[in-house]
Design a protein that fits this description.
Order of helices and strands: HHHHHEEHHHHHEEEHHEHEEHEEHHEE
Low-confidence stretches: 331-341
Number of strands: 12
Strand order of the largest sheet: 2-1-5-4-3
Bound molecules: adenosine-5'-diphosphate
Strand content: 5-15%
Mean pLDDT: 87
Radius of gyration: 69 Å
Distance between the termini: 97 Å
Number of helices: 16
Largest sheet: 5 strands, antiparallel
Length: about 625
């Protein structure tokens, strides 16, 4: 009874025993019943039948006596003898089948009277022979008939005693049947009630631990981790309960460790976020403050407790900052471009004045998306670049001053050298001429550098003033190309202009764009050799003006292509001679960006380079 199987088997066994009791009882009662009916048919019926046969035999013997008296003696004697045998045969059968009380004495009585009867027939035979038919008849009437009646009466008694017994047997059988019915009903009822009560009792007992387990699981589901299932037995359910307890323990440990880890992680992340030295703001999709770090609190003089859940503008009244955060924030395009949950960042230098002091922040706005691509928030990190900006300004001012200071003496050197070379101030010999050419070449290089530096510092210090107007790009290209015709012819390089017909106007600073094209063509000339070609083209692409300066010159090594627009970057390759300042392309890029355009370089070493920029149409 330790296992559930054993318990269930016990209940089934008990039910089987009940069924067996009902079966055995029914069988026993039916047996008794059949037995009593059987006795009724076999014993009493046999006796009645024998009695009836004896009746018939003695009746026929009586007829034989009368026949004998009337004269047919031999036939009568034969008939008498035959029936005598028959009588005795049935008598013997009856004698062996005495079943009822008093039956034996009747049987003996029959026998003695019958024997007397047969003897009387012998006497009658003598009287018939000796005294005649009348005397014989008289003897028959007086002596034989009474004896015959006696035998018949005895036979009657025998018949009735057996008939009575038969009726009694029938009554008994009926009573037995009734009794059996009651007994079977009683036992069946007992078996049904007992079986039902037993199975109810045991089922309830066996199912209780299962119900308890279900309750425990419900509690577990609702979040309780302290609940434990009661181990009530050592059977399968008991094992299940203890296994469930183990599982709850493991779950609790797991949750504690996971929760702890998550909390630790969160605290650590919070600590990192809080300790970032630059202001950091986390906003929800409605631009409500979710989190601000210590640097942000300090810089803007706000408190996180107060700021949380408030709109950005309620706390920080900075329109430029908010415009940058909110524009291009969450829109379908960004979500699609963000490849699901990848963040989408933009950055811009924003200047903020606090207490009459100007601060510069490289503001990085990152839109954060959930796994399903739905926006969940915005992170605003404001890198303080004020010091860098100031240093940059100092540097730019310094370079501007130096360049400016260098420009005047350089102009005098170039002019003086030119005058001497033109022999305006006297003749010079060949050696002097060579020296002067060398001085002129270096002075030219130096003045290009100074000019580039001045241009760059002007652009970087945002002092560069752009005069945007509507201009024809083909005119700019033509005027720029004109300046290089002689130079290209000297170098035997073909300079080709390819402008689409009826090009639309562009909105640009004509002087600056001329400077850009000049620079690109001048570079192309520097890095091409005799027989190469330079192609300047202009066409409309995607509603923008695309201008390309393409050459078949030395090309740029792949690793340089990405950084070629950075300041002072020059290709240092054994074969390629360095001939410039490394500033030209940097200025070019700044000018194009100031126009809101884009520029890119495509180049293959020893095949040629192509520089193209895009500008807005008018
Ligand atoms: P630089 O005054 O040295 O020409 P740039 O900024 O104009 O300065 O160019 C930077 C470097 O890019 C050059 O030194 C040169 O190595 C490379 N470069 C520019 N244009 C070309 C070109 N058309 N073909 C090959 N190299 C080029």
């Amino acid at each position: 009874m330790k296992t559930l199987k054993g318990k269930l088997s016990f209940v089934y066994l008990t039910l089987v025993i009940f069924i067996a009791i009902v079966g055995v009882t029914s069988f026993y009662n039916l047996y008794i019943l059949s037995k009593s009916i059987d006795g009724l048919i076999t014993d009493n019926y046999k006796s009645i039948n024998a009695t009836f046969r004896m009746f018939e035999a003695i009746e026929r013997q009586d007829n034989a006596i009368l026949t004998y008296i009337s004269g047919d003696s031999q036939k009568a004697i034969d008939m008498f003898t035959q029936n005598n045998e028959l009588f005795l045969k049935w008598y013997n059968i009856e004698n062996n089948n005495v079943t009822e009380q008093g039956e034996q004495s009747i049987v003996l009585n029959i026998k003695s009277n019958y024997l007397e009867y047969t003897k009387l027939f012998s006497t009658l035979q003598e009287i018939r022979v000796t005294q005649g038919e009348d005397k014989a008849l008289s003897y028959y009437n007086k002596t034989i008939v009474p004896q015959f009646t006696k035998v018949k009466e005895a036979l009657f008694s025998l018949s009735s005693i057996n008939e009575d017994a038969m009726f009694n047997s029938k009554d008994r059988a009926t009573k037995n049947a009734e009794k059996s019915t009651y007994i079977i009903i009683a036992v069946t009822l007992f078996a049904i009630i007992g079986g039902f009560a037993l199975s109810r009792q045991f089922t309830a007992r066996f199912l209780k631990p299962v119900t308890d387990l279900t309750e425990t699981m419900k509690e577990l589901k609702s979040g309780s981790r302290t609940i434990r299932a009661e181990v009530q037995s050592k059977d399968e359910i008991g094992i299940l309960a203890s296994e469930l307890n183990n599982l709850i323990g493991t779950l609790q440990q797991y949750e504690q460790s996971t929760l702890g880890r998550i909390l630790n992680e969160k605290n650590r992340t919070m600590a990192i976020v809080k300790s970032i030295s630059d202001p950091l703001i986390v906003l929800d999709t409605n631009f409500r403050m979710v989190l601000i770090n210590n640097a942000c609190e300090k810089f803007f003089g706000i408190k996180e407790e107060r700021a949380t859940n408030r709109h950005f503008l309620e706390e920080l009244r900075n329109g430029e900052l908010f415009d940058f955060i909110s524009t291009g924030g969450f829109n379908r395009e960004n979500v699609d471009n963000s490849k699901g949950s990848e963040p989408h960042s933009r950055e811009k230098i924003i200047s903020i004045t606090v207490n009459n002091e100007e601060w510069h922040f490289n503001t990085i706005v990152t839109a954060v998306y959930g796994d399903n691509g739905i926006p969940i928030g915005i992170i605003v990190l404001m890198q303080n670049v004020t010091q860098l900006k100031n240093l940059e300004k100092v540097r730019t001012d310094f370079i501007a001053t130096i360049s400016h200071e260098l420009k005047t003496p350089l102009t005098s050197i170039v002019m003086g050298t030119d005058m001497m070379l033109n022999e305006n101030i006297g003749t010079i010999n060949i050696e002097q001429q060579d020296v002067l050419y060398a001085i002129k070449e270096d002075s030219d290089r130096l003045s290009t550098l100074v000019n580039d530096l001045l241009e760059l510092t002007k652009i970087e210090s945002e002092k560069a003033i752009y005069k945007f107007e509507n201009c024809h790009i083909e005119k700019i290209i033509d005027s720029s190309a004109k300046q290089f015709i002689q130079q290209s012819q000297r170098k035997e390089i073909s300079l080709i202009i390819e402008c689409e017909n009826h090009l639309p106007l562009i909105r640009a600073d004509q002087e600056k764009i001329t400077w850009v094209i000049n620079n690109l063509v001048s570079n192309a000339l520097k890095y091409t050799n005799a027989g190469d070609e330079i192609r300047i083209s202009a066409s409309v692409l995607n509603n923008k003006m695309k201008v390309t300066v393409k050459d078949t010159g030395a090309g740029i090594p792949e690793e340089y292509i990405d950084k070629i627009f950075n300041k002072f970057v020059q290709v240092k390759d054994g074969d390629i001679e360095v001939r410039g300042t490394g500033l030209g392309l940097s200025v070019v890029k700044d000018i194009i960006l100031a126009h809101g355009g884009t520029i890119k370089c495509e180049s293959t070493l020893d095949v040629g380079s192509s520089f193209s920029f895009m500008l807005d149409l008018y």
